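hiii, so i know i said id send this last week but things got crazy w the move. better late than never?? heres the sequnce for the chain we talked about at the cafe, plus the structure i predicted for it. fair warning i was half asleep when i ran it
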Amino acid sequence: MTEEELNARFAALADDASGPDPALVGAVTLEVNRCQPWWRRVGTERVASLVGAVQFVRATGSLNPADPAAIAAVVKASGLRGRRVHQLAWKVTTTILAIEEWESRVR
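okay and structure toks below
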């Protein structure tokens, strides 16, 4: 898949009115901020961007948090910039996978 195709697919997902699940965004935001010092709290908007990006990357291919290329794809899809965005993307990705694993065990 070319970069243009990925960009078009992400734009289509971004236009989707539903967006990421608010409950998932809230749970991930709580977990991310639990691990952060109080002066580095992460806003819900940034987490929502990363949750949407994780869902997009998963829809276009595999999502392995141990793979730096997968995390870079999440960062690129989110459109976020900053010093610690890669660390935040990794934390959001691993948190989503942990929540999904827990939900599958509970069901």
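btw Helices lie at 3-15, 22-34, 44-60, 68-78, 85-106. thought thatd interest u
miss u guys!!
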